[in-house]
Specification:
InterPro entries: ABC3_permease_C, MacB_PCD, Macrolide_Exporter_MacB
Oligomer: single chain
Order of helices and strands: HHEHHEEHEHEHEEEEEHEHEHHHHH
Distance between the termini: 24 Å
Largest sheet: 6 strands, mixed, barrel
Pfam family, one: FtsX
Organism: Leptothoe kymatousa TAU-MAC 1615
Membrane topology: Multi-pass membrane protein
Family: Belongs to the ABC-4 integral membrane protein family.
Amino acid sequence: MDFGESFQMAVKTLAASKLRSGLTMLGIIIGNASVISMVGLGEGGRLYINQQLQSLGPNILFIVPGNRETRRLGGLETSRNLVLADAEAIAQQVPSVVDVAAENTTPGLITFLNRNANASVIGTNPAFITVRNFTTDQGRFLGDLDMQRNSAVAVLGNALAERLFEDQVALGQSIRVNNVTFEVVGVLAVQGSNLGVNYDDAVIIPITTQASRLVGRTSPFGIEVSFISATARDSESLQTAEFQVTNLLRLRHGIVDPAEDDFFIQNQDTLLSIADTITGALTLMLAAIASISLLVGGIGIMNIMLVSVRERTQEIGLRKAIGASQQDILLQFLIEAVILSAAGGVIGTLVGVSGISLLSLLTPFEATASGAAIVLAVGVSGSIGLFFGVIPARQAAKLDPIVALRSI
């Protein structure tokens, strides 16, 4: 019997027991769909995080207070030793840096008439909008005169402006931030979340005004900041800018031993590398967990095929009695197992791709079906069918025709 005849016979046999064949394929279907969906989800998460980091601004450096080792070990007590004067010194004395923004974030209660909203209050300087690559939708951003005069002016995030003013014009309106009156001079375009802060739901004010009217001076060295962000001239200048900023801050803070640094610097490339490493590991973990269902599906195929051998003892005995060889019987049962697993793999792929498309519609993740994941999942499912089909196929091939015919 050639391969074509064995294939036709295997298809007819499986078609005769549609419910059993469908249930047997279910484990493979779930396994393939899970693997493809999990890999797609991981890839979508990686793209989403990269987009968020890219949106922070081009060629950007982040100077954060505290020792790198302390933060790495999970230290809760982080010294707050960066001040506005540090940011101003970087802007004036580091030639490889174009713009520098200082930022300090505190919670606040924002009030307009009888409407209240809890939002982040971000104190910063005019360079913030350039460094972070933001744009205004209405009005203007903060200016140098606002900083010098400690002006009570505010720029609202897009979502916060809609919540407070609904259909009214926000520009020129007066709001209260922690019971201090501010004039709205601008509204940001939609920006989304960055570094744990939702800028669409925030109010931005001059950092000097924040220090003098809202939080006070909490550092004896000047106006305290949460972190400083700086833009290098170009991507080739990032390393130079990091080196120059490090030396300047060590000089200003009186640090001789680098191990005693009370700040550390992260550049965008480093953040992207860390994000890729983490999301890659998570994707592998998710795929490994989902692959367990493929193994369970393979075991299910083996169990059903073993039952099928017992039920088809008479058929096997008759075929061997009329001249079918062990290889013919072995081939037919292997083909049946491979058909079940491959068909389950194809259906599971369709389900997985559909799930990824639905995920892209319902979440901000731009999840995509990885071609490599599809080929791997279908190939593995077919191999699983072949592997787990060997035992029942060998059992059927070795069946003694005399013993089989006695059961007729």
